[in-house]
Amino acid sequence: MNYQDFYQASIQDPASFWDQQAQLISWHKPYSQVLDHSKPPFAKWFVGGETNLCYNAIDRWLETQSDKAALIAISTETNAEKTYSFAELHAEVQRMAAIMLDLGVKKGDRVLIYMPMIAEAAFAMLACARIGAVHSVVFGGFASKSLATRIDDAKPVLVVSADAGMRGGKAVPYKPLLDEAIQLADHKPAKVLLVNRGLDAMMVADRDVDYAALREQHMHAQVPVTWLESNEMSYVLYTSGTTGKPKGVQRDVGGYAVALASSMKNIFCGNPGETYFATSDIGWVVGHSYIVYGPLIAGMATIMYEGTPIRPDAGVWWSIVEKYKVSRMFSAPTAVRVLKKHPVELMKKYDLSSLKALYLAGEPLDETTSNWIATELGVPIIDNYWQTETGWPILSVARGVEHKDTRLGSPGIAMYGYNVTIINEATGAVCGPNEKGVVAIKGPLPPGCMQTIYGDDARFVQTYWSNFAHDQLYSTFDWGIRDEDGYFFILGRTDDVINVAGHRLGTREIEESISSHPQISEVAVVGIEDKLKGQVAVAFAIIKNPERAASPELAKALEAEVMAVVDKQLGAVARPARVYFVAMLPKTRSGKLLRRSIQAVCEGRDAGDLTTIEDPQSLQQIKNALGQ
Ligand code: ATP
Ligand code: MG
């Protein structure tokens, strides 16, 4: 089919379009109305219909492929590997669901899941879905303060956790952090269900219960699916917090199931019986959509991986692709950059012939990284742009519909259902081709996108829908352009803009330019206050050969070279006032550059909310470079 027609149909008549897509999932009760958009910007999809995410992910496949692999849990930390068939997954999820019911969890109650990448985490998510409880997964790498704010916002009746996660060969205790978080929080969950991985954590009487013991009591549990109206809540997930306090994204049931089934078919091209491998974490939206729900809804086996990309060596992911004949893989540019630093032979020694495509998302995919992985892997690299808020790609190519080319540096064209436009921030007018503006989406958002901010409709409207004169526009808070052919380019976040003597420059554009210098492997650019110019750009770069900046003279010479590149490509106005060379850059735990913290440190301010930072040492490096 022609993608242009497919796309136009989705925009011109969303109700008929999504009515068709909705046939990809199983409904317990048919919906009476495809779309209710009578109270914009709120959109209700498949009104009156009843379905269940867990049913679509597991039960639906029991008849045709109950013995086929459903969940493959691999830990290179504990050297454990276990495959659960659809039938086995069905049994485990019912055990978990029975335990939750025993612990008093009722339909609509929130259950907070704070767990490492172990199979039980997926059981817990699916069990919540099965009984109509609302899960809120909190990334296992977060410490007590981040956890406490989420506990207070989601107010869970139950927390499912584990004594420890493992990272880089070390056990990372979770339980003490959880205890501390509950102490810090105003809301007190009634129960904590704990998976013991061998650390035998201290148990709090009357609150903490052991998973293995309760599982024993429920070996033969049969827990029927609780049918939910399509617009009831499935989960709350907090955004990454790259630009500030995380927002609690609330999602529905029916629209989400349809969006996932549809994207698995049209964008990820996955078929029942194949294996999908997303290297993300269940704490992020990719983990929700494309580790747990999406692949299973598509009847695929999904891989849950605990470990790093480079242990025991940088070939580990490719060994998994070979062993489980992975057909579709999903990762992030930051992970590819890590792999790029290791010998490519580690990838080459595996038979990767099962792999059809590698999807990358989460942050801008620079051309160097994209070209490298495309060449070495020999499969299409498909960039895709989306947000926690949307739940599935806004921009990509939908090869399941038509084979469209990708374009270097572009995450693709507008995906069906998303009426994407570029808006001039100052005038509110729609930008022409190649004119820079804010990436916005005309409502209604398609199925699968956020319903609201949990518990705060007013903040939802205020935050996302009130940025332009036209109140039917959802702001992504990202800058972008669209070329003549409909390919978009993301130029950074709207709060990452520098104003140099009246010129508005995206930090991302300057970073792209600096990255084209052969010595630079990674760079962050921020705008800092300047008495004369308002703001100036300052760059922090990681270089490939540290020898090149081993002395102040060498560093100065390299800095001049980098500045010359920017001068030539973007003009002197974009030239950074300083280029500092560092060994590490501050990132969130999801791998995104924390420019706001770098900026704060440069301006001598407090670094702000650092609860999502990967390694605090990275910020110290910035301070050292600045001589602070
Ligand atoms: P917060 O909203 O709390 O500040 P966040 O925006 O980092 O955090 P996510 O929802 O995890 O939280 O990330 C979505 C953002 O990631 C997008 O708005 C965009 O800035 C960036 N992004 C995602 N995919 C891509 C991509 N393919 N290319 C460029 N940027 C991307
Ligand atoms: Mg965001």
TrEMBL record:
Domain AMP-binding enzyme C-terminal: start-end pairs: 509-592
Listed EC numbers: 6.2.1.17
NCBIfam families cross-referenced by the UniProt entry: PRK00174.1, PRK10524.1, propion_prpE
Domain Acetyl-coenzyme A synthetase N-terminal: 3-57
One Pfam family per UniProt: AMP-binding
Protein's recorded name: Propionate--CoA ligase
UniProt family annotation: Belongs to the ATP-dependent AMP-binding enzyme family.
Domain AMP-dependent synthetase/ligase, residue spans: 59-444
Keywords on record: Ligase
PANTHER family: ACYL-COA SYNTHETASE, ACYL-COA SYNTHETASE SHORT-CHAIN FAMILY MEMBER 3, MITOCHONDRIAL
Top enzyme category: ligase
GO molecular function, one term: propionate-CoA ligase activity
